[in-house]
């Protein structure tokens, strides 16, 4: 074990309730931290500690505390506060490590919240200066307008931090031409174990002598590293493989360069925070390539996919990425799969068992076309006989295809029954020419245990990601981690490769002697001892120092599954998605145009993210399952309230239900939790008002003027404000002509009529946006359809959000009964609002059970289908129409990402210039933006993204989006259908 003072691994005790000695150590650290003038956040909450106890690995290790430095100097203060060596410091960035790199039972130093600033950009020098918490995708978004990018491309780019990439010396796609993170470090500012600063860059031999002749810890470190790389030069050449994926974790190979210069950053990169803490880095960046081309190749066997990599390399692609059939099967369940179907179609001559993405980048299009032609010639003459191939040049389609590839790591975590793909031997690398033989033997190991698995990765450089499917809730499957790891380590070594080819070592430090050899491993231990004599940095990882703490073993750290096994089946079933969360961290993205997750984007508090909430939910179910006398059980009341606070800021937008690769649907579990929570706690009066919202709206629609007068009078406003509701919209139901609603006689006359259509009025659009209802009815009539409207149907959305499960069930069953009655007449039924329309494929499924739910088409899907059938003739574009951008509701964007594109296609079909756009959450989401306690957060969400969007002409499909924009910006964007009917009527 790592030897930290705070631990706890026995049944029912994960360390949630620290012992008296543990509390003394923690309080002493916090006191010293405050005495040093620490400006960041110090978080001792149970929820925060739990959220930092996991990453994307199989492990769970509860820290004593979590701190969030606000300034670079806070890192110095943290190190000085830990100088006694009682508690270790583990620096953490994106938290996406696959082998417990940042897990500790000491103090987590989370740099992602505050140390995320881009400090400087020098266009002439081609350098950018960043803090360690800067996210790769946000850095590249900053660089893109200047024509630059940071080349190492990891699949977790939307949440991986630069500090984390330095810690593991990350590389990713395209590394055969772009290299890895350490290749781009100009200077690296770090905090040493004595709290002092050190700035390292490439030193000349003369400058190195000056540094070694100095006094202090930095000089000692320079002297020791120089000694090792000079005295052990021959051993280093013998041990370190000649591969694109180098031997990271104290990379001795590239510190002393051929010209005599010395670059200590090469050693620090990949050291996983065990030698120093990264404070700031100056990175070299490169010009963006002007052109990007892609060939997608399908194969009938994965072995042929691997064999053909060597066939393709003479064409000099920038990357060759491969996916096996298991990954492809998972990908077909993802919302982004439609992008791939558009490229290849959904059928092939043979079953597809493997796929390659072959990319070419450059500034000369003719050269790229030549490379593409060369690659295609090689494919067509290959003995491995691909099924087919497709060249792609559209940048948007290429980006979508790479997004699908990037999701592979998460998709394999999607459960198959009780098993899901787990990482522990998942980033091995071998010389590319031996990859097919190596994979064959790797598969033999896994097949010998009767396991299924998925494989994908960077085949051009011999790095393959493998995730065996295990049920980590069983001791039997957990026991397989050891023998499989040992066998794969031996196999990889025998083929001249590495057990850790990309993601760092983490808890796999015990395998260091196997790959470094005993001589060099002893030198690593000496380097660690010089840099960190009290072993305060990420103790138990990579190499032991002289303080007496050994390296952790892969089966000596608690497994997440061991804790989850303690959850009773009765509690595990309704919250199974929380247990399935594998920590891939897709919800930690800060992409402004991505719907998931608005509350995290605003607060940067991971307890307000889907992963954080999932972890708290599974921990809550575990504590409820434990015996009353179990140590952890005592923390149930505290955790319950912290979980409730976390869920209170969830907007129930359901983006996590689809954009999360595991589909961790927090809103559905939130509803179940609230139902349970309020059995023992008093509900606020506001909840009961919302419970009766739809019946009250029905009454208001009868006399909307009177209802508005009553609802918006000073007295009513005061009452509503007291209840915590502000700025409610005015009622404006549809004013429909006689005969516009569905009747039984109309249904009988139009049974099976292809020109008939039924439009469902939901309670929100039908109550507050009747003008849209009128215009959609007019649009469908104008297009030649016999369109009829249902009465306004209650949907129960508000009841579901607040956890009124029984009341929601009543509403849902009544709505489904109405729908089934209509479906009997074989007439298309369409919905208007995305959030409520999608309930037929989401929330109502739990109510319907095994009984199928009749199809309710989104309006744009219905119209596009009609266009495809040739029913609706195209209209020439008018020069008077300016271009519009269609932005779909965030729930719709996540569940049906093609929605905005469908509307843009429809508008263009009728001569209206339009494109599909994206935006994050507007901050409304039902009543969230009208709740007093969320008003500021709601406004901040709008300002973060939508405020800039509505400066240009936009069309918004969501009622919430239109309502919020009118509240915040004073303008109401039109629905696409409103624009379309206006244009068509003008042309009459």
Strand fraction equals 5-15%
Major sheet: 8 strands, antiparallel
User: What is the structural class?
Assistant: alpha/beta
Gyration radius, rounded: 30 Å
Tally of strands: 27
Averaged pLDDT: 93
- So what's the overall shape? globular
Spatial gap, N to C terminus: 79 Å
Query: In which range does the helix fraction lie?
Result: 40-55%
Q: Low-confidence parts, pLDDT < 50 over ≥5 residues?
A: 1-8
- Number of DSSP helices? 45
What does this structure look like?
β8 and β9 (197-203) form a beta hairpin. It contains 45 helices and 27 strands. The longest helix has 20 residues, at 512-531. It has 988 residues and is α/β, with parallel strands linked by helices. α8 packs antiparallel against α20, α25 packs antiparallel against α26 and α43 crosses α44 (959-969). 43% of the residues lie in helices and 13% in strands. The radius of gyration is 30 Å and the shape is globular. Strands 13, 14, 15, 16, 17, 18, 19 and 20 form an eight-stranded antiparallel beta sheet that branches. Strands 5-6-11-8-9-10 form a six-stranded antiparallel beta sheet. The chain has a four-stranded mixed beta sheet with strand order 1-2-4-3, with helices on one face.
Features:
27 strands; disordered N terminus; alpha/beta; 45 helices; 13% strand; six-stranded antiparallel sheet; eight-stranded antiparallel sheet; 988 residues
